[in-house]
Amino acid sequence: MFSVNVEIPACEYVRGGQLNDVTEVGSARAAIVEAAAKCFMHAGYSDTSIDDVADDLGATKGRIYHYYRSKAELFFEVHRHGMAINLDAIEPLATGAGDPVERLNAMCKVHLRNMLDHIVYQRVVLQGVEMHLSSSTTPKQREKLKVLMKEREYYESLFRDVLLEGREQGVFAFDNPSFGSKAVLAILNNPVLWYKPRKTQSEKEKTQIIEEFSALAMQSVAAKR
Amino acid sequence: MFSVNVEIPACEYVRGGQLNDVTEVGSARAAIVEAAAKCFMHAGYSDTSIDDVADDLGATKGRIYHYYRSKAELFFEVHRHGMAINLDAIEPLATGAGDPVERLNAMCKVHLRNMLDHIVYQRVVLQGVEMHLSSSTTPKQREKLKVLMKEREYYESLFRDVLLEGREQGVFAFDNPSFGSKAVLAILNNPVLWYKPRKTQSEKEKTQIIEEFSALAMQSVAAKR
DNA sequence: CGGAAAACATACTACTGAGTATGACGTTAT
DNA sequence: ATAACGTCATACTCAGTAGTATGTTTTCCG
Asked: Domains in chain B: how many in total?
């Protein structure tokens, strides 16, 4: 899998195939990442100051810079966590058994579930796509962003592979496989742009969105019969 | 249609139903808007300084602030121009004659064509959706952003209406109409996120993208037969 | 218990970037 | 010609912010 190594000032930090230990509840790093995700979601990366994150934590800058050496690194951490949630859930489904239609259907629903349940992280992940670290960032940080984009690309390839398998069996139809997976993910990611969790009826809303958007996504690559 | 009134320091400024006179070639305002769109696309709103736009123009701040009283207003102008391009092209198709399948097909292709031909403006329009003017902006500016979002909503309704008409005739199938139009537009907007115009084979690439993504979009709401 | 290291908070620095005040230059109307 | 106005450039102000340097408290271990 992807093994990303970052020099971490404090604590040990290892990224295996599964969820990051950084995310364990009670960890100081986890609290920081959580607060950062919240702020990044509400105001975007550029318009979020480290002080904003510190405020959300009820702390000060010092706390954050003790664990993360820059704002960009903190963003990367949030992004990585968001992608880890998705990869850990989708990877087994993609490589598992079963016919392609069933597999893709499961992937769509789980992906949507993740979008709605972890929306703060998912919006940060989407921001990563539009991330412009062109200016005012070190070349080293740009390298890390490339690694994150590779991870994203791999995630998309999981969908692409299932699509290709289904096309060979005649259950899916599309021309360019890359376009097919992009279209499916475009639909699946869409709710992240507008979904706001309600206090009441929240779960009912979620299941409706999951059902309907997964149906739309499946339909977009379905073979006509 | 939407009549937006902004106090403009110099020159007269009227927004009718059609393309803004601001965009006429030779106009000083048009050059500013063009440069701003380019910068906003490459670096995003927050990471684009007025000086950046001025540099692109080969001018200085003074020029820009002579025509636009704030950075936000300049963004609004770019956004408005982008939406005007889309509305002027799609509105006649949506309300025109013909069966829903043909109409939606035409709308999809024209929309995609606009995405690829005016990508600088379209990316700014997409940024508008994720715009967070929550902090450090006047309530008056937030009002204007709402107007822009209304315009976006109206654009989406053009697709929704055609979809509804098609569902009544049994040629389209979906559950929630709003979700249907969102899915279609999600696919149609997707190329904006990754398309980079090539020097060679540019037109061939475009037509391929247009054909395949419109097919995917149509398919996502197609009735199974 | 005591000393070291981790885990912060406080108080800075240095810089960017939005917006303004003002002046210079050209054009047009009278 | 000159007054007025439109069109900019120059030179500022000032608030916000990333990052650092250093002090202070708590925890942990021998």
From this structure: 1
